[in-house]
Amino acid sequence: MLDNLDKIRQQFKEELNAINSKDELEKLRVAFLGKKGLVTEALKNLRNLSSDEKKIAGKEVNKLKHEIEEAIASYHKTLEEREYLKEIENAEHYDYTIPSSREAGTLHPITIVQKKIEDIFKTMGFIIEDGLEIQTEYNNFEAVNIPKNHPARDMQDTYYLENGQILKTHTSAAQNTIMKKYGAPKKGEPLKVLFPGRCFRNENLDASHENTFFQLEGMMIGDDISISNLIYFMKVLLSEVFERDVKVRLRPGFFPFVEPGFELDINCAICEGSGCSTCKQSGWIELLPCGMIHPNVLKMGGIDPDKYTGFAFGLGLTRLAMMKYNIKDIRLFNSGNLKQLKQFTR
Ligand code: FA5
């Protein structure tokens, strides 16, 4: 019996030396330790021995079994390391110092304009906030003075989630949360916040209407804020973004969350005011509605309208990018057509 164990040990060593893969190793394991393997058979044969012989031989068979198990585990590790090294050897080598043959990407035109406006307003003391895209109906409508069944809701039909929340239709949906977050401003230190964001509406699409577009909202609340502050900031915004004189017109506009409210339109950059499909032949693009925050909205935000006033504006950021880069059709922005988009941002 003991002679036989030595033979098995020797045979195992020889066969192990010839193994080159994990598959072969597994076959070797089965041949020695499997149900009908040589070591298993030796264990079964113990029952034919006397009890004295069994004690000695049993110990030796178990020792051999243990040796073989350990040798297989260790060889398995060696094979894995070899495979890993081979993979590294065969992997493509990159020289990161070689200039790329591919053109680098650019920022999206909307991102460029957004960053520019954020930078301008930051220098004027504005904080940048990030509004949620999924909103409660309360924040999107009720908190900005648009109660249930108000006709203004029809203008901003949107996408409803199963849990009753909605995809926000305008950045104004963040007004209430921001007012509650910062609270009433201290004397002489108005609250100045800018909050850009993606908006969603169930729209009939055309050259200037998308179902997914960007707005950028600004709000300033303090103890002495007037329409002249509003007009000043609108002027700075437009002259810094366009870096040229642009023709604008200010007309009264109705929004339930401002009083008085205005529509600030920009002369269509595509046709220079003569009329085209982008401006629906009017020569003007609705760009920057604004107004003095309605007392109800301040109250719902926890700010006393008898002590404080404020202005808000809701810039159509996507349309601003259209006007800045002379992009005729708004649908180009979401097209993912890099060739088209890159030409505006070189
Ligand atoms: C609003 O969304 C108001 N919340 C703006 C506001 C804020 C007014 C604060 C007063 C005070 P309006 O629905 O007009 O207003 O949208 C604002 C701007 O977003 C528009 O002038 C336009 O430039 C842009 N816009 C609106 N709908 C779309 C659309 N479907 N596709 C692209 N741009 C759009």
Descriptive terms for the model:
single chain, two-stranded antiparallel sheet, 346 residues, alpha+beta, eight-stranded mixed β-sheet, binds adenosine-5'-[phenylalaninyl-phosphate], BirA Bifunctional Protein, domain 2
Please give a structural write-up:
This protein is α+β, with helices and mostly antiparallel strands. The chain has 2 domains: 2-90, no CATH class; 109-341, 2-Layer Sandwich (BirA Bifunctional Protein, domain 2). 40% of the residues lie in helices and 16% in strands. It is built from 11 helices and 10 strands. The chain has helices spanning 2-17, 22-33, 38-45, 51-90, 109-123, 137-140, 175-182, 227-242, 295-300, 317-325, 338-342; strands spanning 127-128, 134-135, 166-167, 191-200, 212-222, 248-252, 258-267, 284-286, 290-293, 309-316. The strands form 2 sheets. Strands 1, 4, 5, 6, 7, 8, 9 and 10 form an 8-stranded mixed sheet that branches. Helix 1 runs parallel beside helix 4, helix 2 packs antiparallel against helix 4 (51-90) and helix 5 packs across helix 10. The radius of gyration is 37 Å and the shape is elongated. It starts with a helix and ends with a helix. The mean pLDDT is 93.
